[in-house]
From TrEMBL:
Stretches assigned to the EAL domain: 24-279
Protein's recorded name: Cyclic di-GMP phosphodiesterase Gmr
Species in which this protein is naturally found: Rhodoferax lithotrophicus
Full-protein residues shown: 656 to 946 of 946
Coiled coil: none
Length: 291
């Protein structure tokens, strides 16, 4: 009887689910190829300081699928995590990002830029994660103080001690940490006091309503002031309007702004052009003094 059930497994799914399953399998084997065939690329989204000058970027992975065109990370990061492909993919992202950071260090106008890299739970929970990152740093030679690893709250719940230990080990080498999508996870405020973080990123879902809903405004204000009293810098993500920027920067002293207001994530050449055009008042002055 159970043999029959096994043989007929697909009959338990409706046709839409069968399609979903086939689709998923196709995407999985394509993703395997993507890694080997150079179909992945990093784009860079500017992060701006309060004074309007560029502070750095977040590296966001892009997949140029030969038939489907551009596939969004929203569609493949989850799958990569489920299948374990996130490990080689994440390593590729980290290596590529660090090589980029090292290349900026040789260009005077870009040498101050920081780069944020998303790290998934599966990656940081690997026993040799710290060694892997140190190996990448040694082989690509960026300034580790300019590297920020972005973690999400969900991974911290069950593995707090493990994650804290790894963060501390990497911080000794200068690497910084940022808590991504803050406010959307399940973590309690007690985690915040225990994690050796440098930055907190307010999730877009709060930012998008900050200029229209008193509650969203109150939540953002509270997050920023709490973060500052914990000595954390705050990045607002998904800032799309000047009104949002004004409330975050001018009213609540949010440290960094990331969002379509300034720029979408850009391919490397476009990002470098953007960066040299937005060096900011402070940076531009130093530059003129030196040259
Ligand atoms: P995230 O880390 O929270 O990245 C921010 C996402 O918000 C990016 O989407 C970015 O393009 C988008 N965004 C930024 N500003 C705005 C805005 O003003 N308006 C709107 N509507 N969207 C904005 P993207 O590039 O599609 O990435 C989605 C998610 O995929 C990321 O969210 C991150 O969780 C994941 N991801 C991307 N690259 C990587 C990676 O290399 N490794 C891992 N593990 N995850 C990644
Ligand atoms: Mg992120
Ligand atoms: Mg985010
Ligand atoms: Mg987000």
């Amino acid at each position: 009887k159970s043999k029959d059930a096994g043989r007929n497994t697909l009959h338990f799914f409706d046709p839409a689910m069968q399609r979903g399953l086939l689709e998923r399998n196709a995407l999985e084997s394509d993703l395997r190829d993507a890694l080997n065939q150079g179909q992945l690329e990093l784009h860079f989204q500017p992060q701006m300081s309060i004074n309007g000058g560029i502070y750095g970027a977040e590296a966001l992975v892009r997949w140029h699928h030969p038939q489907r065109g551009m596939v969004s990370p929203v569609e493949f990061i989850g799958l990569a995590e489920e299948t374990g492909l996130i490990l080689p993919l994440g390593l590729w992202v980290l290596e590529t990002a660090c090589r980029q950071l090292a290349s900026w260090a040789t260009q005077p106008e870009l040498a101050h830029l920081t780069l944020a890299v998303n790290v998934s739970a599966k990656q940081i929970l690997q026993p040799n994660f710290v060694e892997q990152v140190l190996h990448v740093l040694a082989s690509t030679q960026p300034n580790p103080h300019h590297l920020k690893l972005e973690l999400t709250e969900s991974l911290l719940i069950d593995n707090l001690e493990d994650v804290v230990g790894k963060m501390k080990a990497l911080k000794l080498h200068g690497v910084g940490f940022s808590l991504d999508d803050f406010g959307t996870g399940y973590s309690s405020l007690s985690y915040l006091s225990q994690l050796p973080l440098d930055q907190l990123k307010i999730d877009r879902s709060f930012v998008m309503h900050i200029d229209s809903q008193d509650r969203a405004m109150a939540i953002c204000a509270a997050i920023i002031s709490m973060a500052h009293s914990l000595k954390l810098r705050v990045v607002a993500e998904g800032v799309e309007t000047e009104a949002q920027r004004y409330i975050l920067n001018t009213v609540h002293h949010c440290d960094y702004i990331q969002g379509y207001l300034y720029s979408k994530p850009l391919p490397i050449a476009g990002f470098e052009t953007f960066a040299t055009q937005h060096l900011g008042a402070a940076k531009a002055t130093t530059r003129h003094k030196n040259t």
